[in-house]
Specification:
With about 500 residues, the chain is mainly alpha-helical. Helix content is about 60%, strand content about 5%. It is built from 21 helices and 5 strands. Strands 2-1-3-5-4 form a 5-stranded mixed β-sheet, with helices on one face. Helix 13 packs across helix 14 and helix 17 (about 315-330) crosses helix 18. It starts with 10 loop residues before the first helix and ends in an 8-residue tail after the last strand.
Length: about 500
Amino acid sequence: MPRNARTPESAEGATLLTACIWAILALTAYRIALLPFATIDLFVDEAQYWLWGQTLDWGYFSKPPLIGWVIRAFTELGGSDAAFWIRLPGPLLHCATALILVRATREIAPADAAGLVGLAYVSMPIIGIGTVLMSTDTVLLPFFAAALWCWARLTRAPSLGVAALMGLCLGLGMMAKYAAMYFWMCALIAVVMVPAARIRWKDAGLAFVVYLLVFSPNVLWNLTHGMTTVSHTGDNIAWIKEDAGITLNLSGTMDFIGAQFLAMGPILFAGYLWALVRRGRGWPNAWLVWMSLPVLALVTVQALLSRAYGNWALAAYPAALMLAIPALLAVAPRLLWAGLALNAALVLALPVAVTQATGWHIGDNPQPVLRRYTGRANVSNQIIDEARRQNVTAVMVQGREVLADLYHTARDSDVAIYAIPPDGTAHHYYAQTYPYPRDRQGAFLYVTMGAGRSPCTTPLRAPVSEWSTGPGAYRSATMQAYLLDESCWRAP
């Protein structure tokens, strides 16, 4: 990376940059315009993040706190807890990330390449999904991209102010998702492998101190809450299994690698892999290889030793785009435009698809095509209606997925929702925070899905109601409801 002036502007490059920025803004407006008409229910994690935001804290069961804070801010702004306001941060934050990447790329590449990096980001298929389903990656990525911008600036000119800003961005990134720590791992490898990626020790030290200060409240929260979030993260890694030791998950690894082609778009991801190969032939900005490849490599190892979801490597993609798009533009512009066109077709169709989630079927199959994202609120309403029929004001539910939507759907009802109290360590947030009070008096409804049973053994209780959940996420499973009270209560 050169340490002097930026790449000179050209009139054509400036025009393309302006057009790309307008395209990013137009795509964002299109996504927001269709978002109120989405017929998908809140997904399990979205509903949980919303519930976190109802009680602001420095940490939560499975993630750092920033996503709960962001959702709380938007629902307060909108005066509503509807799904639209919970999801509205998604398209806005991804738009911000795209614009930040434009600015970051402008530090190392011409204006036309910078504009196309932003456009490529906002049209990635996985980012399209992130504009209709709220996730911690959505909150992390603008801070990760901003940190890359700061690092690029620091390689050109030392600055304590920029270094402090980089530390602030990475600290806030850690408050969104612990994947922000990938930045430090990648940066360390980059400065070893590529001399042009090095910055002053003074700048790096200041950035790291600010990072620690911003992130420290979550560290203190974990220390005072039994390292809950850290323990959950460790459980997700699960490289060593108690019953089998280390085993290799070859099929899962191939699935993860295939998911990366879908995440970035098949042509653009292939272009990124090609740019990786070119790094040894004097390709410019080789430091970006080491700001992206280690993340993909590490998560691939995770997939091999345990499991990994396709989005677990998302932190690699800001640098991957900054590397691949200028390379493709210089050598294979038609291929680049084909990749962008393919991705654009997919992401333009997605907002329309989620407005038809309950209506699209294949043949005579009663299950909707997007069944994973439908039917949850319907089941919650069935449970609330059954509680009212039984004249009770408390419901205890088995199953994290059902609980997640039930808390949101029942938010304005007079029915209190509880999880089964844990026998030892809580395995999810609801059991940790909202266990059924063992000293509560009076009747309550116990609801379970599938092959459930009554917690009562003497006398044995029969369900007061059974019903089918109907089409959707639970695939017409059977719900059973038992009317219980303190006389028979025990944890199943």
